[in-house]
Amino acid sequence: MTEQEVGKIFSYYSKIGVAAIELIGELKVGDTIRIKGSTTDFTQKISSMQIEHEKVKEAGAGDSVGMKVNEKVRPNDIVYKVIE
Predict the structure, then answer these.
(1) What domains are defined for the chain?
(2) How far apart are CA 19 and CA 2, in angstroms?
(3) Residues 6+ apart with CB under 8 A from 46
């Protein structure tokens, strides 16, 4: 199992549990991601993603996406795609 860096958290909305991510790689709904930072480290599957409040199935480098996360994340946490 390998991990590929695909983005960085730039904001977190605690009331709704959503992370805003600036992507440098591709992500699709159904991918498994790992979010890692100085106090953050967890893995989850992507159940849904949005760009500008529109649901999308996939997003690529340069996109800013919002997605539900299972735990609190912080700006500058790194997002990795888990490749099995």
Answers:
(1) 2-83 (2.40.30.10)
(2) 23
(3) 27, 28, 29, 30, 31, 32, 33, 67
Question: How much is the pTM?
Answer: 0.96
Angle at 22 between CA 20 and CA 28, to 5 degrees: 85
CB 38 within 8 A of CB 30: no
Q: What is the signed CA dihedral for 79, 60, 46, 52, rounded to 10 degrees? A: 100
pLDDT digits (tens, 9 = 90+) for 4-52: 999 999 999 999 999 999 999 999 999 999 999 999 999 999 999 999 9
Partners of 21 in the beta sheet? 9, 65
- Nearest CA-CA partner of 70 in 46, 53, 54: 46
